[in-house]
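Human: I wish I could look at a protein chain and see how it folds. This is the protein in question:
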Amino acid sequence: MSGKVVIVTGGSRGLGREMALAFAARGADVVIASRKLDNCEAVADEVRGMGRKALAVAYHAASWVGADNLAAAAYDEFGHVDVLVNNAGMSPLYPAIDQISEELYDKVMDVNLKGPFRLSAVVGSRMVAAGGGAIIFVSSLASQRPGPRDLVYGAAKAGVNNLTYGLARTLGPTVRVNCIVPGPFLTDISAAWDIPKFEKMARRQFALERGGDPHEIVGSALYLASNASSYTTGTTLNVDGGPR
């Protein structure tokens, strides 16, 4: 990844932070984008501590204009972008399907689908003009197997899977577009889980009988971001522990 510039949305925590630091450890300069600028700056400082350049940008993934501004900030700072990781997302809980408000529905769709579409369209078009690049979406197992508490989120992420296939053909042959489909990962979000209950469920429902550790997303991200995947585009890669 030496000499590459990578944008990671949702890069201040969880899987996004793991990927941002992994790219930096392998020589990339990184743009860390998330809603809270202070958190982005903290990760940017970690990247700088590795001897790489970093830019922290406050970014709301639901904002069309925000996507334009993030792209402009990245190109103004570095002059080029080689890899875009659309990792930002949200999956709020709701008590029952008939109690999902229109506001909540729109917010989930905007964060998980509208924003990543706009950012990929803007950055992807500039990658085509520059002669190449890679876009990685981060979807969810809910896009393939939605449960009763993540229907809207699952629908939005299913749109991301579809967008992966379509953009690969729109931006090819110079820009590759792929998607990671994670299962349950034990990031900071899992602090709110009933862990004994989750572990019991995982032993029953997943071939590996556990949730993923955050660092276990790194191999897939590096593969899809680098020339190791030079003949891979338009694909979804499940990193999900093997649901039964």
User: Anything to note?
Assistant: Residues 5-239 form a domain with the Rossmann fold fold (CATH 3.40.50.720). Strands lie at 5-9, 29-34, 54-58, 83-86, 133-138, 175-182, 236-239. The radius of gyration is 17 Å. The chain is about 45% helix and 15% strand.
